[in-house]
Design a protein that fits this description.
- The structure holds two protein chains of two kinds.
- Chain A has no helices and eleven strands.
- Chain A is mostly beta strands.
- In chain A, strands 2, 4, 5, 6, 9, 10 and 11 form a seven-stranded mixed sheet that branches.
- Chain A is globular.
- The N and C termini of chain A lie far apart (36 Å).
- By secondary structure, chain B is mostly beta strands.
- Helix content of chain B is 0%, strand content 51%.
- Chain B contains no helices and eleven strands.
- The termini of chain B are far apart.
- The chains are: A mainly beta, B mainly beta.
- Chains A and B meet through strand 4, strand 5 and strand 10 of A and strand 4, strand 5 and strand 10 of B.
Amino acid sequence: EAQVTQNPRYLITVTGKKLTVTCSQNMNHEYMSWYRQDPGLGLRQIYYSMNVEATDKGDVPEGYKVSRKEKRNFPLILESPSPNQTSLYFCASSFSPPIYGTTNEKLFFGSGTQLSVL
Amino acid sequence: ILNVEQSPQSLHVQEGDSTNFTCSFPSSNFYALHWYRWETAKSPEALFVMTLNGDEKKKGRISATLNTKEGYSYLYIKGSQPEDSATYLCAFPGTNAGKSTFGDGTTLTVKP
């Protein structure tokens, strides 16, 4: 089944304890992206990747790191989590990056990770 | 950060009502606009990718129109059903390849 797999679904941690949220897609998608969603706000882009070894900052990258060593995986790393990073996180992927408006640019989302940093 | 606005923030309608809501985006350097539907406890799912001025897309009872010159897109739902209850998001890619700005969404509740 074609999907974006995100783990864990729920995570409670403490300030400063490094954590990684994994994201993997099995659709051979070039483009992957991370978003966070906070109450009353839409999805805000954290980082994105146009292809392997090509990552770039979105609108809210502070406090996050990513890597794209393989096409299928795009982990989100919080080196020193803080309470303001408590949020719902989504990973998404698409065949093509959102540039020209083709149907290949439709994003497929993972199931989300609810992170609480105490 | 691009300014992408959705209105209204929330909408409550009765089953059978038709409804519509708006996504406003910068009209300069337009490439595309995406619509997504996000049901509670699920992940957002793509509805439409809109590219041309005057474009109209349709999926069942849901349709969307696009005006790139004035910078807005309308999403219409004809004869709303309780299963249409969801948050509808629009996303504007802008001119930086790979970046995408989402609106805050319109949350639709359809009462039986």
